[in-house]
Design goal:
5-stranded parallel beta sheet; 23 helices; 7 strands; 67% helix; binds thymidine-5'-diphosphate
Length: 694
């Protein structure tokens, strides 16, 4: 379609990225710097709380850090809905700019109070009060921003815009943590330039405050700020959770997913909650704290990005459960290994496992939940995740503080340090493993298949072959060949001969030996379907075959019968693979899947030059018979190649010989694979049916 007037195919070009929109870009930049500031604020304040109470011992220190987390999250949970409703009444630009200036002043006040007074419990109290106030102000800024985005970008770009928002909301966490780690490195240069920057927490808070001013400027100068017209009211977090649970609780799978995802989230939260005191116990300082904090988020980002590509052959539900169990095991290692470097590395792994579980859970919920409930389910999940995170980051250091510091005597001379933080991490590890195991059991879609074998096969890029409980005991013979090769006649003659020998014989053919197969055959061979694409042709033959194997061939083989089929997988390799020039590897793969890997014990290839074979027909040609001679040449060549590659499993017979001669040659070959003792030709065949094979 061309655009009238311009003559250019504008609609066919990729639409410009949402960031090409200058006004959205400006708002997004403001959001990015604010997110960075927010994360810097969390790291700096928790580090500061640890420093301020360092003299008072492990217990007080842990509680002080827990207090900061509570102060950061409590206002959103208690007052969120209220503020959202109020925020809609203000002019949004004004609300955001005022909020930014207030945040700037409040955050700045913390290092200033520290500068002016000697550190005391009173200083800590101001940290908490200022934090509560900043969070209350945030409650106005965030809904104003959320409500403005849909007014700046067109509806069809909203999803893209939301993804960008998510990206900066969480993506700035490792950046902030990294920045903090750098600020905490001992550097005289930094202190010379910035005399105020005696300790990294203060410096980080200065940067944090400045960032809010930048945001105020960006928003103040945003051209044509959209006026409020739609009141987007966000329901209360608690209400969202209550409503969501009513939908989610009904489905066992979704319930399992939600519990698993929250478990994964909680594992990451436990590390963040106790990281400050744990790192100190391991001999690390603020820089190490920043590193651990960043490691969780960097790992998560990594897991979310690579998770979906991981172990593609493994069932997603199994991968989900396994990732959570593994997160539990890694968390236990973090709890018990007293080495800072190892702890940081394991933290990245933990974050990655949590990220994998989160993204897979998210995707699976998307598939399991009906369209009209999906939005609510995701909102529920996000709200619950926030509450879980609040509880974990607040409770973890508090619990650690209550337990305190302990030494466990392993031997008279050896003592192992086991503090509250070790305990909390260990409890978290046990919980995560338990949640993972429950998820694995509750939602397993590959029951009866050993999980280790499944995992090993998936690691090799393969799907674990399903073994049916009942092993086939019969014998499976396939006839293959080009058009008019006489294989149909020959397969019947072999069937008669074997029956005469007293075997239970099932004679069948492809395509069209089942109810569904007959309909597929009609589609496939009807000359009117000339437009059928090569791929759908291959898939339809494979579908017919899957039905054939499951309904006819397998039951007969399990019973111990002799199954003779006129055409099988090789026909698809020859006709669709070579004839239609599809990738043979693809054709092999779909057929291996369709048949569950069932291969004939013997394949009889009756080889006839196409010219001779086709000349044997008198009636009008079907779809495939009417293909040009080159097509049939390719088919013949492929059959011969397949046979040459596996001489033990094939017998190639020249089909231009007289019919009796062909039959005799086939019988000779089949006799070789018949069970001992081979029933003699002269024996009366009406007696008992011999067992075919064990
Ligand atoms: P059919 O009438 O059974 O022919 P024949 O007597 O030659 O066996 O039709 C089968 C046709 O389907 C034949 O032309 C080959 C084609 N075919 C494929 O192209 N792929 C397949 O996998 C199978 C089983 C058959």
């Amino acid at each position: 379609m061309t655009t009238p007037g311009t003559g250019r195919a504008a609609s066919r070009r990729k639409p410009p990225h949402v960031l090409a929109n200058a006004r959205f870009r400006r708002l997004w930049t403001a959001m990015s710097v604010c997110s960075l500031g927010d994360w810097l604020n969390i790291v700096a304040l928790t580090a500061l709380a640890g420093d301020l109470t360092a003299e008072s011992g492990y217990q007080v220190q842990s509680l002080a850090i827990g207090g900061v987390f509570v102060a950061k999250m409590l206002p959103a949970i208690l007052l969120g809905p209220l503020a959202g409703a109020v925020a809609d009444r203000f002019d949004r630009r004004l609300a955001m700019v005022v909020a930014d200036v207030l945040r700037f002043a409040l955050v700045l006040s913390i290092p200033l109070v520290l500068l002016l007074s000697t550190p005391s419990p009173g200083t800590y109290q101001w940290v908490i009060i200022a934090t509560l106030l900043v969070e209350c102000v945030n409650l106005f800024w965030v809904p104003a921003k959320d409500a403005t985005v849909p007014n700046l970008v067109p509806k069809d770009r909203l999803e893209e815009a939301n993804q960008l928002n998510m990206l900066v909301t969480y993506g700035t966490a490792p950046v902030a943590a990294g920045l903090f780690a750098v600020l905490a490195l001992p550097s005289d240069l930094l202190r010379d330039i910035l005399p105020l920057a005696e300790d990294p927490a203060r410096l980080a808070l200065f940067i944090n405050a400045a960032v809010y001013l930048v945001s105020a400027f960006l928003i103040f100068t945003l051209p044509d700020f959209p006026k409020n017209h739609t009141g987007i009211s966000t329901p209360s977090v608690l209400r969202q959770i209550g409503e969501g649970w009513r939908y989610v609780g009904a489905s066992r799978i979704v319930r399992g997913l939600v519990i698993g995802m929250l478990g994964a989230f909680a594992a990451g939260g436990a590390v963040i909650g106790v990281a400050r005191v744990y790192v100190e116990a391991l001999g690390g300082g603020d820089s190490a704290y920043g590193t651990v904090f960043g490691a969780v988020f960097a790992g998560m980002a990594f897991g979310m990005f690579f998770g979906p590509r991981l172990l593609r052959e493994l069932s997603r539900r199994r991968l989900f459960g396994l990732a959570i169990v593994a997160a539990g095991v890694v968390l236990a290692a973090i709890a018990l290994i007293h080495n800072l470097v190892i702890v940081v590395l394991l933290t990245v792994v933990l974050g990655a496992l949590a990220g994998i579980a989160w993204i897979i859970g998210y995707t699976l919920i998307g598939l399991e939940v009906e369209d009209q409930l999906r939005g609510r389910t995701f909102a529920f999940l996000q709200s619950l995740a926030r509450v879980v995170l609040l509880l974990v980051v607040a409770v973890a250091p508090t619990l650690a503080g209550l337990y305190g510091e302990r030494l466990v005597r392993v031997a008279p001379e050896v003592a192992y340090r086991f503090d509250g933080s070790n305990l909390v991490l260990l409890v978290g590890a046990v919980l995560a493993s338990a949640v993972g195991l429950v998820a694995l059991r509750q939602m397993d879609d590959r029951q009866g298949i050993p999980i280790i074998g499944d995992l090993v096969a998936a690691a090799r890029g393969r799907r674990f072959a399903t073994e049916t409980q009942e092993q086939p005991r019969g014998m499976f013979i396939a006839f293959e060949g080009g058009e008019g090769s006489g294989k149909t006649t020959q397969s019947r003659l072999l069937g008669i001969w074997l029956r005469d020998q007293g075997f239970d014989v099932v004679q069948t053919r492809e395509p069209g030996s089942t109810k569904v197969g007959m309909r597929l055959r009609a589609i496939l061979l009807d000359a009117a379907h000339q437009g059928l694409s090569a791929r759908s042709e291959a898939l339809l033959y494979a579908a017919d075959r899957a039905e054939h194997v499951e309904k006819v061939i397998m039951p007969a083989l399990v019973r111990g019968a002799m199954v003779i089929t006129d055409r099988y997988v090789d026909s698809s390799l020859a006709y669709q693979g070579a004839g239609r020039a599809l990738d043979p590897a693809d054709v092999t793969r779909i057929n291996a899947w369709a048949t569950g890997g069932l291969t004939p014990d013997l394949t009889v290839l009756i080889d006839v030059p196409p010219a001779i074979g086709l000349s044997r027909f008198a009636s009008p040609a079907d779809r495939i018979e009417s293909e040009p001679p080159e097509f049939h040449e390719r088919v013949r060549r492929e059959f011969r190649t397949l046979a040459a590659a596996e001489p033990d499993r094939y017998v190639v017979i020249d089909g231009t010989q007289p019919q009796e001669e062909v039959s005799r040659l086939i019988q000779d070959r089949v006799r070789e694979i018949l069970p001992d003792p081979v029933p003699d030709d002269s024996e009366d065949a009406t007696g008992t049916i011999p067992a075919i094979r064990d």
